[in-house]
Specification:
By secondary structure, the protein is mainly alpha-helical. The chain has helices spanning 34-42, 47-56, 61-72, 116-144, 161-171, 183-195, 202-206; strands spanning 12-16, 24-27, 86-88, 106-108, 151-153, 175-177. The chain is built from seven helices and six strands. A hairpin with a 7-residue loop joins strand 1 (12-16) and strand 2. Helix 1 packs antiparallel against helix 4 and helix 3 (61-72) packs across helix 4.
Length: 207
Amino acid sequence: VSETPIFVPGVWGPYFSAMVPGLWLNEGGQSATGKLIDHVVRGHVAFPELEAKAAASAHSIYTYLNSHLDLIKKSLPVGFLTVDLHVWPDFHGNRSPLTDLTLKGMVVGLTLSRGLDELALIYLATIQAIALGTRHILEAMQAAGHDITTLFLCGGLSKNPLFVQMHADITGKPVVLSKEVESVLVGAAILGACASGDFASIQVCST
């Protein structure tokens, strides 16, 4: 949001009072994030093995993958595991900032490996690609005049520590998470409470 309208190529808006009354809103997004991760992970030949091992350990498949990456990273930070594996994430076209629905996804650096290690690596590379997409949008917005210093994450993917860490590492910005587990629902409740007339503004209601 901004106090004055800022036009950003490839990013929607600016819209006046669309989210916060009296402020202008720009909105840039990616065509697929959580669904893209699911598509890559569940389509891999090693997915049945992952599913069985995750169930046996009483963890979600993504918690198990995160732990598996920690096991194979050795001495380097986990992000360096994909030095030779790269994903272009526009499997469903690009929404922002390229606005090209004809773009397709791509994976570079595949080997003949079919095991759980390879699945974990392509999972990591996909998350990194999404974070790089976020960085691309942020850079376009900043070039147009926005001043973005901090990322605030909410929703299902914010519950994945690897997703959060890769966004912090790749954008170079601090990430803030809500104390509320379901912050999107809290936001909806704030809007409803404000719309009822019991509060003078969203800002007052949210405090």
